[in-house]
Structures are given as C-alpha cells and as structure tokens.
Amino acid sequence: MTECIIPGPFGAISIKASPQGISAIRFLTEATRLKPPSSALLLEAAKQLERYFAGSLQTFTLLLAPVGTAFQQAVWQALQQVPYGTTRSYQQIAHAIGNPKAVRAVGMANSRNPIAIVIPCHRVIGANGKLTGYAGGLDKKAWLLQHEQQPGQTRC
C-alpha cells in the first residue's frame, strides 16, 4: 500500500492506494509532514482533490477500492450516486439500497466510509435537515456542503 499526504483547506489529507485502487482518504488531525504522491494513481487522486477544493471538479473519476462488508459496499455505492451540491437523508439512502428499515445501519456504514469526499458521506444529513455525525467532524461536513453550494469559488 502506498500513501501520500497533501495539504487541504483544513489540514493535511492522507490518500492511500492499493494495487486495486484508492483505498482511503482521511483528514489528519495532527500536524504532519507532507508526502508527495509516489504513483500515478496517487498523483491523479491528489490532482482531483485539488480541483475539487478549487471548485472546478464536481465528479471524481478515480479507481476506488474501499474495504468493507457487502452492506457497507452497497451504502458506499449509493453515496456515490448523490449529486454534487445536494444532500440525502439516511432514510433515503436506506431506500436507495432496497432496505428501508436499515436507517441506523446506513448511518454506521456511512461512519465507516474509508474514502472521504470522493465517496461523499458528507452529503448525508438527518431526516430533519440537520447535520449529523461526520467522522471528520461536523465543522468539515458543514464546510464541504457549503463549498458545494458555491461552485467555481476557491475557499482554500
């Protein structure tokens, strides 16, 4: 597994890749040294994230390889269908995967998403329209949602 660490609008971001594709994108909470991409896949992921943060990319085209259960994979696939600049509730995601009673399980799968931003778990909100849990922190979730409402504007 290879890794690079790039700057983001709220600190360093780690991108990991396996031979199958991007396996993780995470916000780092501690100060750490940047590490340049060492493979074409990591370089492409870094470029696409940079363009996303600059407001010039709305759809990622990366080869992804998240590791999870079949249920988690189904949720993560459904998350990738949520368009840029929109949100869905946990209940809507549960319906999208054909399991309308699995709202809490969808929330758990959402919280275990290993590929932040690209698998847009930040676009999932509570049924009441309020922001709910986000592994990166609600401040980052709010920032990402606001960022997607202002296409073309750099907020870094």
TrEMBL record:
<keyword id="KW-0489">Methyltransferase</keyword>
<dbReference type="InterPro" id="IPR008332">
    <property type="entry name" value="MethylG_MeTrfase_N"/>
</dbReference>
<protein>
    <recommendedName>
        <fullName>Methylated-DNA--protein-cysteine methyltransferase</fullName>
        <ecNumber>2.1.1.63</ecNumber>
    </recommendedName>
</protein>
<dbReference type="InterPro" id="IPR036631">
    <property type="entry name" value="MGMT_N_sf"/>
</dbReference>
<keyword id="KW-0963">Cytoplasm</keyword>
<dbReference type="Pfam" id="PF02870">
    <property type="entry name" value="Methyltransf_1N"/>
</dbReference>
<dbReference type="InterPro" id="IPR001497">
    <property type="entry name" value="MethylDNA_cys_MeTrfase_AS"/>
</dbReference>
<dbReference type="InterPro" id="IPR023546">
    <property type="entry name" value="MGMT"/>
</dbReference>
<feature type="active site" description="Nucleophile; methyl group acceptor">
    <location>
        <position position="121"/>
    </location>
</feature>
<comment type="function">
    <text>Involved in the cellular defense against the biological effects of O6-methylguanine (O6-MeG) and O4-methylthymine (O4-MeT) in DNA. Repairs the methylated nucleobase in DNA by stoichiometrically transferring the methyl group to a cysteine residue in the enzyme. This is a suicide reaction: the enzyme is irreversibly inactivated.</text>
</comment>
<keyword id="KW-0808">Transferase</keyword>
<dbReference type="InterPro" id="IPR036388">
    <property type="entry name" value="WH-like_DNA-bd_sf"/>
</dbReference>
<feature type="domain" description="Methylated-DNA-[protein]-cysteine S-methyltransferase DNA binding">
    <location>
        <begin position="70"/>
        <end position="149"/>
    </location>
</feature>
<dbReference type="InterPro" id="IPR014048">
    <property type="entry name" value="MethylDNA_cys_MeTrfase_DNA-bd"/>
</dbReference>
<dbReference type="Pfam" id="PF01035">
    <property type="entry name" value="DNA_binding_1"/>
</dbReference>
<keyword id="KW-0227">DNA damage</keyword>
<dbReference type="GO" id="GO:0032259">
    <property type="term" value="P:methylation"/>
</dbReference>
<feature type="domain" description="Methylguanine DNA methyltransferase ribonuclease-like">
    <location>
        <begin position="9"/>
        <end position="65"/>
    </location>
</feature>
<dbReference type="InterPro" id="IPR036217">
    <property type="entry name" value="MethylDNA_cys_MeTrfase_DNAb"/>
</dbReference>
<keyword id="KW-0234">DNA repair</keyword>
<comment type="similarity">
    <text>Belongs to the MGMT family.</text>
</comment>
<dbReference type="GO" id="GO:0003908">
    <property type="term" value="F:methylated-DNA-[protein]-cysteine S-methyltransferase activity"/>
</dbReference>
